[in-house]
Design brief:
Blueprint: H1 3-22, H2 34-41, H3 61-72, E1 92-100, H4 105-118, E2 125-126, E3 131-133, E4 138-141, H5 145-159, E5 164-166, E6 168-175, E7 181-188, H6 192-208, E8 221-228, H7 232-237, H8 239-252, E9 260-262, E10 266-269, E11 272-275
Antiparallel strand pairs: 1-3, 1-4, 1-10, 2-8, 5-9, 6-7, 7-8, 10-11
Helix pairs in contact: 4-8, 5-6
Bound molecules: adenosine monophosphate.
Residues 133, 174, 176-177, 183, 215, 217-219, 223 line the site of adenosine monophosphate (AMP).
Length: 276
Protein backbone atom coordinates (compact mmCIF):
# COMPACT_ATOMS: atom_id res chain seq x y z
CA UNK A 1 0.00 0.00 0.00
CA UNK A 2 1.49 3.37 -0.86
CA UNK A 3 2.14 5.62 2.11
CA UNK A 4 -0.29 8.40 0.97
CA UNK A 5 -3.16 5.94 0.80
CA UNK A 6 -2.22 4.46 4.20
CA UNK A 7 -2.25 7.98 5.70
CA UNK A 8 -5.63 8.71 4.20
CA UNK A 9 -7.09 5.48 5.63
CA UNK A 10 -5.57 6.19 9.05
CA UNK A 11 -6.97 9.72 8.98
CA UNK A 12 -10.32 8.34 8.03
CA UNK A 13 -10.27 5.88 10.97
CA UNK A 14 -9.28 8.70 13.31
CA UNK A 15 -12.16 10.80 12.05
CA UNK A 16 -14.54 7.89 12.51
CA UNK A 17 -13.22 7.41 16.05
CA UNK A 18 -13.71 11.11 16.68
CA UNK A 19 -17.27 10.79 15.44
CA UNK A 20 -17.86 7.72 17.61
CA UNK A 21 -16.47 9.57 20.67
CA UNK A 22 -18.64 12.60 19.99
CA UNK A 23 -21.77 10.50 19.68
CA UNK A 24 -21.36 9.78 23.42
CA UNK A 25 -20.98 13.42 24.45
CA UNK A 26 -23.73 15.07 26.46
CA UNK A 27 -24.37 17.93 24.11
CA UNK A 28 -24.43 15.88 20.96
CA UNK A 29 -22.39 18.50 19.22
CA UNK A 30 -21.73 18.45 15.49
CA UNK A 31 -18.19 18.40 14.19
CA UNK A 32 -17.45 22.00 13.59
CA UNK A 33 -13.80 23.02 13.67
CA UNK A 34 -12.46 24.33 10.43
CA UNK A 35 -9.49 21.95 10.55
CA UNK A 36 -11.83 18.95 10.79
CA UNK A 37 -13.88 20.26 7.86
CA UNK A 38 -10.70 20.73 5.84
CA UNK A 39 -9.54 17.20 6.68
CA UNK A 40 -12.89 15.81 5.57
CA UNK A 41 -12.79 17.71 2.28
CA UNK A 42 -9.29 16.41 1.58
CA UNK A 43 -10.40 12.77 1.62
CA UNK A 44 -10.88 10.95 -1.71
CA UNK A 45 -14.42 10.40 -2.97
CA UNK A 46 -14.57 6.67 -2.17
CA UNK A 47 -14.04 7.22 1.60
CA UNK A 48 -17.56 7.15 3.16
CA UNK A 49 -17.69 10.53 4.90
CA UNK A 50 -20.63 12.91 4.49
CA UNK A 51 -19.00 16.25 3.79
CA UNK A 52 -21.79 18.74 3.38
CA UNK A 53 -23.79 18.28 6.56
CA UNK A 54 -20.94 16.70 8.56
CA UNK A 55 -23.38 14.08 9.82
CA UNK A 56 -22.23 11.39 12.21
CA UNK A 57 -21.38 8.00 10.78
CA UNK A 58 -22.77 4.82 12.29
CA UNK A 59 -20.50 3.42 14.99
CA UNK A 60 -17.74 1.50 13.18
CA UNK A 61 -17.59 -2.22 13.96
CA UNK A 62 -14.00 -2.05 15.26
CA UNK A 63 -15.10 0.54 17.84
CA UNK A 64 -18.06 -1.60 18.91
CA UNK A 65 -15.69 -4.53 19.43
CA UNK A 66 -13.35 -2.37 21.56
CA UNK A 67 -16.31 -1.24 23.67
CA UNK A 68 -17.38 -4.85 24.24
CA UNK A 69 -13.90 -5.78 25.42
CA UNK A 70 -13.84 -2.80 27.78
CA UNK A 71 -17.11 -3.89 29.38
CA UNK A 72 -15.57 -7.16 30.54
CA UNK A 73 -12.01 -6.11 31.28
CA UNK A 74 -12.44 -3.84 34.27
CA UNK A 75 -9.12 -2.84 35.83
CA UNK A 76 -9.60 -2.05 39.57
CA UNK A 77 -6.14 -0.45 39.75
CA UNK A 78 -7.58 2.42 37.71
CA UNK A 79 -9.99 3.35 40.50
CA UNK A 80 -8.13 2.75 43.74
CA UNK A 81 -8.68 -1.02 43.73
CA UNK A 82 -12.47 -0.60 43.89
CA UNK A 83 -14.43 -3.31 42.17
CA UNK A 84 -17.34 -2.17 40.06
CA UNK A 85 -20.72 -3.23 41.45
CA UNK A 86 -22.13 -3.31 37.95
CA UNK A 87 -20.43 -3.61 34.57
CA UNK A 88 -19.69 -0.42 32.70
CA UNK A 89 -22.01 -0.41 29.72
CA UNK A 90 -22.63 2.18 27.05
CA UNK A 91 -25.78 4.15 27.92
CA UNK A 92 -25.86 3.06 31.61
CA UNK A 93 -25.55 5.99 33.99
CA UNK A 94 -24.75 5.36 37.67
CA UNK A 95 -27.20 7.56 39.55
CA UNK A 96 -27.85 8.52 43.17
CA UNK A 97 -29.42 11.32 45.19
CA UNK A 98 -27.64 12.83 48.17
CA UNK A 99 -27.09 15.78 50.47
CA UNK A 100 -23.70 17.36 49.93
CA UNK A 101 -21.46 18.26 52.87
CA UNK A 102 -18.47 20.54 52.34
CA UNK A 103 -16.84 20.08 55.76
CA UNK A 104 -14.33 22.60 57.08
CA UNK A 105 -10.76 22.73 58.37
CA UNK A 106 -11.73 21.08 61.69
CA UNK A 107 -13.70 18.40 59.90
CA UNK A 108 -10.55 17.55 57.90
CA UNK A 109 -8.56 17.32 61.16
CA UNK A 110 -11.23 15.00 62.58
CA UNK A 111 -11.01 12.76 59.51
CA UNK A 112 -7.17 12.68 59.68
CA UNK A 113 -7.32 11.82 63.38
CA UNK A 114 -9.68 8.89 62.77
CA UNK A 115 -7.49 7.65 59.89
CA UNK A 116 -4.45 7.68 62.22
CA UNK A 117 -6.25 5.60 64.85
CA UNK A 118 -7.13 3.01 62.17
CA UNK A 119 -3.58 2.77 60.76
CA UNK A 120 -2.57 -0.32 62.81
CA UNK A 121 -5.51 -2.15 61.17
CA UNK A 122 -5.44 -0.74 57.67
CA UNK A 123 -4.63 2.37 55.70
CA UNK A 124 -7.91 4.07 54.87
CA UNK A 125 -8.51 6.46 51.96
CA UNK A 126 -10.30 9.76 52.54
CA UNK A 127 -13.64 9.96 50.73
CA UNK A 128 -13.49 12.52 47.90
CA UNK A 129 -16.91 14.06 48.17
CA UNK A 130 -18.54 14.03 51.61
CA UNK A 131 -22.28 13.43 51.38
CA UNK A 132 -25.31 11.77 52.92
CA UNK A 133 -26.81 9.24 50.49
CA UNK A 134 -30.59 9.24 50.20
CA UNK A 135 -30.80 6.57 47.49
CA UNK A 136 -28.68 3.58 46.60
CA UNK A 137 -26.63 3.90 43.43
CA UNK A 138 -28.93 2.75 40.65
CA UNK A 139 -28.48 2.45 36.92
CA UNK A 140 -30.41 4.82 34.68
CA UNK A 141 -30.51 4.44 30.94
CA UNK A 142 -29.37 7.64 29.26
CA UNK A 143 -32.76 8.27 27.66
CA UNK A 144 -34.50 8.04 31.09
CA UNK A 145 -32.47 10.79 32.75
CA UNK A 146 -34.59 13.75 31.70
CA UNK A 147 -37.83 12.07 32.68
CA UNK A 148 -36.41 10.78 36.00
CA UNK A 149 -35.13 14.23 36.97
CA UNK A 150 -38.44 15.83 36.10
CA UNK A 151 -40.31 13.19 38.16
CA UNK A 152 -38.09 13.95 41.18
CA UNK A 153 -38.58 17.70 40.73
CA UNK A 154 -42.36 17.39 40.45
CA UNK A 155 -42.67 15.14 43.51
CA UNK A 156 -40.40 17.35 45.62
CA UNK A 157 -42.38 20.45 44.64
CA UNK A 158 -45.66 18.72 45.48
CA UNK A 159 -44.39 17.70 48.93
CA UNK A 160 -42.89 21.05 50.03
CA UNK A 161 -40.12 19.77 52.32
CA UNK A 162 -38.91 22.41 54.76
CA UNK A 163 -35.26 23.31 55.34
CA UNK A 164 -33.74 21.58 58.35
CA UNK A 165 -30.46 21.00 60.17
CA UNK A 166 -28.52 17.82 60.85
CA UNK A 167 -25.91 16.88 63.44
CA UNK A 168 -23.52 13.97 63.81
CA UNK A 169 -21.73 12.72 66.90
CA UNK A 170 -20.53 9.13 66.51
CA UNK A 171 -19.10 6.73 63.99
CA UNK A 172 -20.22 3.44 62.53
CA UNK A 173 -18.66 0.88 60.19
CA UNK A 174 -20.48 0.06 56.95
CA UNK A 175 -19.83 -2.27 54.07
CA UNK A 176 -21.40 -2.09 50.65
CA UNK A 177 -23.90 -4.82 49.81
CA UNK A 178 -21.30 -6.89 47.97
CA UNK A 179 -18.89 -6.53 50.92
CA UNK A 180 -16.14 -5.43 48.57
CA UNK A 181 -15.61 -2.09 50.34
CA UNK A 182 -15.67 -0.91 53.96
CA UNK A 183 -16.57 2.61 55.07
CA UNK A 184 -16.27 4.56 58.29
CA UNK A 185 -19.21 6.93 58.52
CA UNK A 186 -20.29 9.70 60.89
CA UNK A 187 -23.82 8.92 62.02
CA UNK A 188 -26.46 11.57 61.59
CA UNK A 189 -28.24 11.70 64.93
CA UNK A 190 -30.99 14.22 64.20
CA UNK A 191 -33.53 14.97 61.49
CA UNK A 192 -34.23 11.25 60.98
CA UNK A 193 -37.93 11.83 60.21
CA UNK A 194 -37.25 14.61 57.69
CA UNK A 195 -34.62 12.47 55.96
CA UNK A 196 -37.06 9.55 55.84
CA UNK A 197 -39.68 11.86 54.26
CA UNK A 198 -37.19 12.75 51.53
CA UNK A 199 -36.22 9.08 51.06
CA UNK A 200 -39.88 8.15 50.68
CA UNK A 201 -40.28 10.70 47.86
CA UNK A 202 -37.16 9.41 46.12
CA UNK A 203 -38.28 5.79 46.60
CA UNK A 204 -41.57 6.60 44.83
CA UNK A 205 -39.63 8.06 41.90
CA UNK A 206 -37.31 5.03 41.77
CA UNK A 207 -40.30 2.68 41.84
CA UNK A 208 -41.80 4.40 38.79
CA UNK A 209 -38.60 3.56 36.95
CA UNK A 210 -38.49 0.01 38.41
CA UNK A 211 -35.30 0.82 40.32
CA UNK A 212 -34.30 -0.35 43.82
CA UNK A 213 -35.46 1.62 46.85
CA UNK A 214 -33.16 2.79 49.64
CA UNK A 215 -32.55 0.61 52.73
CA UNK A 216 -35.71 -0.23 54.70
CA UNK A 217 -33.90 0.78 57.89
CA UNK A 218 -31.79 3.69 56.64
CA UNK A 219 -28.74 4.55 58.70
CA UNK A 220 -27.95 8.08 57.48
CA UNK A 221 -24.27 8.87 57.62
CA UNK A 222 -21.38 10.74 56.01
CA UNK A 223 -18.74 8.26 54.91
CA UNK A 224 -15.35 9.82 55.64
CA UNK A 225 -12.90 6.94 55.08
CA UNK A 226 -12.94 3.75 53.04
CA UNK A 227 -10.87 0.76 52.04
CA UNK A 228 -11.15 -2.18 49.71
CA UNK A 229 -12.42 -5.45 51.22
CA UNK A 230 -14.46 -6.29 54.31
CA UNK A 231 -12.72 -4.87 57.40
CA UNK A 232 -15.93 -4.48 59.40
CA UNK A 233 -14.96 -6.79 62.29
CA UNK A 234 -11.47 -5.34 62.68
CA UNK A 235 -12.70 -1.74 62.63
CA UNK A 236 -15.59 -2.51 64.98
CA UNK A 237 -12.93 -3.79 67.38
CA UNK A 238 -11.55 -0.25 67.75
CA UNK A 239 -14.84 1.64 67.30
CA UNK A 240 -14.91 2.55 70.99
CA UNK A 241 -11.50 4.21 70.70
CA UNK A 242 -12.56 6.00 67.50
CA UNK A 243 -15.75 7.31 69.10
CA UNK A 244 -13.85 8.56 72.18
CA UNK A 245 -11.57 10.50 69.87
CA UNK A 246 -14.53 11.95 67.90
CA UNK A 247 -16.39 13.04 71.07
CA UNK A 248 -13.27 14.61 72.61
CA UNK A 249 -12.31 16.35 69.37
CA UNK A 250 -15.78 17.85 68.93
CA UNK A 251 -15.90 18.94 72.60
CA UNK A 252 -12.48 20.54 72.33
CA UNK A 253 -13.62 22.42 69.20
CA UNK A 254 -17.12 23.21 70.37
CA UNK A 255 -16.93 26.72 68.83
CA UNK A 256 -16.85 25.10 65.39
CA UNK A 257 -20.15 24.91 63.56
CA UNK A 258 -20.70 21.17 63.16
CA UNK A 259 -24.26 21.51 61.85
CA UNK A 260 -25.30 20.56 58.32
CA UNK A 261 -27.88 22.83 56.72
CA UNK A 262 -30.24 20.95 54.44
CA UNK A 263 -31.57 23.28 51.77
CA UNK A 264 -31.02 21.32 48.59
CA UNK A 265 -30.59 17.79 47.27
CA UNK A 266 -28.36 16.71 44.40
CA UNK A 267 -28.97 13.96 41.87
CA UNK A 268 -25.74 12.79 40.31
CA UNK A 269 -26.03 10.75 37.13
CA UNK A 270 -22.81 9.94 35.29
CA UNK A 271 -20.98 13.24 35.09
CA UNK A 272 -24.15 15.35 35.31
CA UNK A 273 -25.52 16.96 38.46
CA UNK A 274 -29.06 18.20 39.02
CA UNK A 275 -29.81 20.42 42.02
CA UNK A 276 -33.24 20.39 43.65
P1 LIG B 1 -22.30 5.86 51.20
O1 LIG B 1 -21.15 6.63 51.76
O2 LIG B 1 -23.60 6.58 51.35
O3 LIG B 1 -22.03 5.34 49.83
O4 LIG B 1 -22.48 4.59 52.14
C1 LIG B 1 -21.46 3.65 52.29
C2 LIG B 1 -22.04 2.26 52.27
O5 LIG B 1 -22.91 2.06 53.37
C3 LIG B 1 -22.89 1.99 51.04
O6 LIG B 1 -22.18 1.13 50.19
C4 LIG B 1 -24.14 1.35 51.60
O7 LIG B 1 -24.44 0.19 50.86
C5 LIG B 1 -23.75 0.99 53.02
N1 LIG B 1 -24.87 0.79 53.93
C6 LIG B 1 -25.01 -0.37 54.57
N2 LIG B 1 -26.12 -0.34 55.34
C7 LIG B 1 -26.71 0.85 55.18
C8 LIG B 1 -27.90 1.45 55.72
N3 LIG B 1 -28.69 0.82 56.58
N4 LIG B 1 -28.20 2.70 55.33
C9 LIG B 1 -27.39 3.34 54.49
N5 LIG B 1 -26.26 2.82 53.95
C10 LIG B 1 -25.90 1.58 54.29
Amino acid sequence: MNSNLANIINNSKSLQLLNAYESESDEDEKLSTSSTKRALNDLPDDIPVKRNKLEKLPLPSFVIETEKIREYEDDPSLHGGRIRNFPHERGNWATYIYLPYKGNEYFSQLVDGVADICLPITKLEIVNDFHISLTKTVILKYHWIESFVSTVRTKLNANCLKRFQLFFNSMEVYTNEEKTRTFLGLNINSGYDQLCDAVQIFNECLKEFKLNSFYEDPSFHISILWCVGDKKNELNGILHEINNFVTNFMDKNSDTDWTIEVNHFICKTGNKQFIF
